[in-house]
Amino acid sequence: MAGLPGQVHDLGLTLTQTNATEARPKLKALATEGEVDQVRLSGFVKDIAAGKFKDQVPGPLARSLWVRQNTVEINTVDEIARSL
Question: Is 0.70 surpassed by the pTM of this model?
Fold first, then answer.
């Protein structure tokens, strides 16, 4: 999403080796894209199946559960990006 990686237990961005000049256009894109496609966003989360039974959880189910768990936060991504 906007060229920024995410992690399974985060709903946020860690911009390593990125300065403000590089980050601003990506944050602006997040702010202006409108509503975030939750399923598309889940595709950017690395290692989405985590924990003891990760090998038994199909990818689509893990993504669906991640979306359900983070729906409230996902719906505020564009608002948060605009405030930065």
Answer: no
